[in-house]
Structures are given as structure tokens and as C-alpha cells.
Specification:
The structure holds 2 protein chains of 2 kinds. Chain A is an alpha+beta fold. Chain A has one domain: Roll (SH3 type barrels), CATH 2.30.30.90. Chain A is built from 2 helices and 6 strands. In chain A, strand 3 and strand 4 (about 50-55) form a beta hairpin. By secondary structure, chain B is α/β, with parallel strands linked by helices. Chain B folds into 4 domains: about 10-170, Rossmann fold; about 185-255; about 300-475 and about 500-515, no CATH class; about 535-715, no CATH class. In chain B, helix 16 (about 365-380) packs antiparallel against helix 23 and helix 17 crosses helix 18 (about 405-410). Chain B has a 7-stranded mixed beta sheet with strand order 2-3-4-1-5-6-7. The chains are: A alpha+beta, B alpha/beta. Chains A and B meet through helix 1, strand 3, strand 4 and strand 5 of A and helix 3, helix 11, helix 17 and strand 8 of B. Strand 5 (about 60-65) of chain A pairs antiparallel with strand 8 of chain B.
Amino acid sequence: MNISLSELQPNEEAVVLELPKEEQIANRLREMGLLPGTTIIFVRRAPLGDPIEIRLRGYSLSLRQNEAASILVKRTQA
Amino acid sequence: MHPEKDVKCYAVVGNPNCGKTTLFNALTGLRQKVGNYPGVTVEKKSGQFIGQHGEKIELLDLPGSYSLNSHAPDECVTRDVLLGLRSDTPRPDRILCVIDASHLERNLYFITQVLELGLPTIIALNMIDLAKAQGIAIDVLKLSEELDVPVIACQANHRETLLSLKLALSRAEITRSSWAQKLPSPWMRAIDGVSAIWAHAGEKTSQRDPLVRMKSLLLLASPDAEIESLSKEMKAGSALGIALAQRSMLDRELPLWREALVSARYDRITELCQAAQGKSSIAGDAMTHHLDEILTHPFWGWFGFLGIMGLMFISIFVVAAYPMSWIETTFGFLGNCVREIMPQGDLRDLISDGIIAGIGGVVTFLPQILVLFFFIGLLEDTGYMARAAFLMDRVMSKVGLHGKSFIPLLSSYACAIPGIMATRTIENAKDRLVTILVAPLMSCSARLPVYALMIAALFPKGTVSIWIQGAIMMGLYLFGTVTALGFAWLFKKTILHGETPVFLMELPPYRIPALKHVLLQMIQRARIFLKRAGTVILGISVILWFLVSFPKNPSSHVRNSNTSPQVAITSVKSDKATQLEYSYAGHFGHWIEPVIAPLGFDWKIGIGLVAAQAAREVFISTLAIIYHVESDEENPSSLSTTLIHETHPDGTLVYTPLTCLSILVFFVLSMQCISTLAVVRRETNSLRWPLFQFFYMTGAAYLASLLVYQGGKLFGLM
């Protein structure tokens, strides 16, 4: 089932399907290694609910709900 | 950069958080120069060390970067220096790439871009110990073979590995990597097309030149909105036009061309990593994970955050107090020595009251700056700084800012200048400007001595505990911070409204800080501060001494008819007060008194405020000169004692609690630092913004002090 990255729960693993439409945001995400096909783990939300922390390619990246909501992912395993 | 022709010069590059600067410090120690790249406020750091054969080797520490195709101002500097597009910095002959061994995959993205530039390159595989501890075993030989350049495993705190790195850097010849990223054929054609233009334009460059090809690639890949950040040379002539034409070709033939560019590189890196370190796990350092469970916990996270910030302030207040009193005593002693040794006259007064008192007033709060930068260094080195931004981003986004603005604002607690310089990590121009505009509202260390003095005057010795004084101090910091956020919100809503840009921030693993590195950075900050103190502030102190000493009162022992009888009761003090009133400064103080009287300030405070417009800390040295604190033999160092007993002509106290509070509020809000204004002018490249900043802050300070003083009087306080 395809959902947005922001709908993931802590410790869930997923594969990226689609990046946001805005070129600047998509470019930055790609440069940081977040590409369609990349496996990510949703780590946690910040104490105030935003931003969120994910792991990919062996490092931790934080991004806002806003951007996460327009990244399409697919859960791999619970 | 090239003092001698044969000096080898390396540009040091790498991702942020890869330990690049720590390694740079470990290699060069204190043989460093810190300056600025002209036109941008990106710090330019270079250093030297002695190579294996006794020769000098230069290192240029370029700002940490994630990609050559990125557009934050500091990353642009790195890109432009590497491409040879900065006229102030010659293109380096060699490159030292620093890789964090525990984050090989992400680091290699930028590093392979750099390899493609075709310069002689050495790779330092840094933090090899941390990688090992995480169970990452890297086949260094394999990596070196694949990347086609020497790879040296090292750790900044380990002498032997540093030695082998120095040995490698001393080599006479270093190979150029043959690494070239294969791209889908439409991409290759597009690069050929753009490169041909430069090959024709330049005399010696060929279309195959790796530098030309990288420039073409970057011109093609740059998002439309960011083309502006590319250097002029890259868009010169028909290059930009051809690039746009090639882009529409790519649009037709390879619809996902932008994605293809990045994924081709990452695909190859993934392969390489599998060959060199086996299949890597996505999970990271377990220790970091456990620590973050606590430090970013919805409850304990805030507990930790407030604890750390609280500890920082208490340390500044309590720990720094000891060396401060030593410095005060020393300068007091020096002033007295001069007064005893030298014959009476203007020169003696200039040295003892102008120069020594002026320098003393500045150097006294060096301990506070050292403690603060020690903490900031620790926060950065341990990785907590990024967590602070992670915790605070929601709050910052409420006022329309970025979690990344938190770090410049936090740095502004030490000094708005490094804080404003730290805004270069904010990509969005409007956010950056808003952060710059409000940064000086964060209470900087130059305000600290004023706060300390006024709190001391507010509570004469022994009446309240040091903890309550600390709490009031923290309250002042909080007041400044809340005001800064309020103004940020206002500016984002009105004059600088715009979308909140994409927030992407790496959360580096927690690390044990390298004490040497933290201390080195602390010393560097102190040096920069003292340089400023030695020039601007000393200059102002001398000018001030002149303003308070001249013109000479012709009849210093004859009672001046303008002076009310109470002032000139007895003692030498009345002479000095008369002289002050007679001086240029006194005239000016009197002249502005009607304006500042509603705030509870008298003309002497007025002189202090005027002098403090140049730099806040000057307020203290001015008061010291005005009240001739040094000449008070019994207690040479205690300015606050003098202030407490200071009276108006009618015998009432000048420094009533309400006046002290009003002064405190004024100092929290007002813009009183020429150096900051100069930096803002350079940073925003306009006169408009520093002027705006000066007027909005000073205006707010005036109104707030007015409210405090008049409101307080209304409620019967004094």
C-alpha cells in the first residue's frame, strides 16, 4: 500500500516511490541520497511532533512533516 | 595562499560532520589564519604544517559540503574555489578529501564529484576507530583501488595515523583519479554540447577537460530557481543559452534526467561500498540511538535541553567570575603603578585612565567569552547542536523560521557577529535576513558585563544569593530571546513574508568531543575578540578619555556657578565631576538628558549610552572613566560599589532599582555595536538593512525602558 512518508510509525521500514513535485525540494532530497528505490527507516518524531527523523544510507536525516507528506513510500515490513 | 612557489597547497574538503575541521586543527595546530572570503561572510581558514622533508605544506579548510550541486552560500564557496572561479583564492593544486568512515556511502557522493575534477587527490578515511566500533570493516586497499587515489585510514586524535597522513601529504607526486561517472547517453551528449562552448571560448581548455565537464554538468543540473547562485563565469557568453537548449533536449529524450544524474552516482557508490565494506546496515550507532531515545524524548528531551542551557549560563556566571576578578585587580594595579611612576600630566592620565582602564574593561570579560565558546564548541562537537535544532524547529517554524536559525541565534548569545556569520547555513535568503535582523536581540557576551554590573548594583553585596542573580540573568536572556522571536514573526508576516523553505538537516552521531579541538576553537574566538578589542574598543576608550578630559576646566578648584552646591561639597571627587560636566562628553550628556530622563537616566548614564553605541562593553569602561573608579584607593575594582552610592544633585540615589532595571531593559533590546552593523552591511550587501536594524532595535529599547520606568513609578516603585 502506498502511503506518504509522514504516515509511517516509528521503526517502520519503507521504500521511497516518489519525490515531491517541486524541483528545488526534490533536488535537495536526491542529493542527500533520498531517491526512488531508497530504503528508509522512520525513526521518530521530534517532541513537538515536527520535524521527523529518518535513517537512510547509514545516516540520520531530519525533515519536516510538510515535505514528508509529499514523499510517497511503500512499507516493506512491519 | 602561495607565499613560496614550491609550497604544496591542499584544499581540505568533505561533508559537514566528517571531522574535517578537527583533522585540520590536529594537523596545523595554532599555525592558522582565519579571515573571510571577500563579498560573503564565509570564514576562510588556512593553516600550515611541516611535511616529512621539512617543507611547508599549506592547507585551506573549505566549508563542509554535501554536494557540488548545492546552493547555500558556504557550499557555493567550496564549489567555486574547487572550480577555480573565485578571484580571491587561486585554484588549489591538490585536494585532501576527508571521509567519515562510519558514513562512507553518503560521504562518497560529494567525494566522487570532487574526484571528477581531475586534481591530484588524497583521501583521509577519518574516524576509522568509530567505524570499527560500529562493526564496519572497510577494505582500505580496495577503496583506494576503486577510487584510484591514495586512501589513508586515520583518526584525528591518534598520532601514528596522523603521521601516515602527513607522510602521504608530503609526497612529491600524487595521482589524479580516473574516476568518471557514467551517465545515460543523452546526458553525455548534453555535457558535450555545453563543454564545446567553453572549449571554444578558452584558449587552452579542451572539451575533455574534467573541469570543463563538471562545470557543464553543474550548469545543466542546477534547479531553475538556483541558477542565480552560480558564478558569473559559468553563465558567461552563450553557455547558459546552450545549457537551456540542452535541457529541453533532455526533457524530451530522458524525462527523468535530473533523477538519473543522482541515481547513477549513488548506484555506483552502493556497488563500491559493497565491495569495500560488505553489505552495510541501515541502522547506525547503537549508542546514538539510545542517547536520542532520552535526549529527544517528549519529556526528558526538554529536561536535558533546559539542563544543558541552564548549566551553560550558570557556568558563565559562576566559573568566569574568578578569572574576571583577577583581571580586574591586575589592571587596577597596573593603573596605580603608572600613576605612581609617571610624572603628573595629560600623558599619565591618558595611559592610566584612558588606555589601561579601557583595555582592562574589555579584557575582563574574556573569561566569559571563553566559557561560552567552550560550551558552543562542546555542543557542536558532541552533535547536540543538531538535536537542539531538531527540538526547536517546531518553535522556530511557528515564527516562520528554520530549526537551522536556532544555531545562529544560539551562537549570538556569545556574539552576534559569529551568529550572523553562522546564518550562511540557511539557504533561503529571506529566512537568512530575518535571522540576521533579530540575531543581535539575543543577549551577547558584550552585554554580560553590563548585566553583571547592573545586577550587582541592584543587589548590593550579600543581599541575595548568587543563584537568584543567576536567575535574573537567565530572565534577561529569556526576555531578549522572546523579543527576537516576536520580531522574527513580525518580519516574516510583514516586510519579509515568504514560504518557509525545505528543512533538511543531518543528525550526526554523538561523539566524544576532542578537547584539543574545542580549546583551539575557543582560543581562535578569543583572538578574534581581542583583535577587535585591541583596535575598535581601545580606540573608542582613548577618544572617550579625550572627550571627558577636554576642554580642561580652567578653574577646577574654583566653584563653578553652574554646579549646584551639593555636588561640590568636598573631596577630589567633586573636581572630577566638575571637569566631566565641563568636558565635551558632559555637554553631550546634558544635551541628550531631556530625551533619556523619562527612562530614569541622568546625563552620566547618557554619556555611557552614547559611548556604548559603538560597542556595548564600552559602557563599563566609560562609567569607569566617568566615576574614576581606579582612583578609589580602598577598592580599586568595584565599580558597582561606586554606582550604588552615586547620588543626584538633590541627594537622591541615581542607581535606584528602577533605573537599574530600565538600563537592563535598554541594553537587552538596543542595537549598540558598530562591528555588528558593519557585518550586517557586508552580509546583506546594503546600507538599508543595518540602518533598519539600528532604528527598530533602538526604538524598541527606548519604548520598553520608558514603559518600565514610568510604569514602575506609577506603581510606586523607585
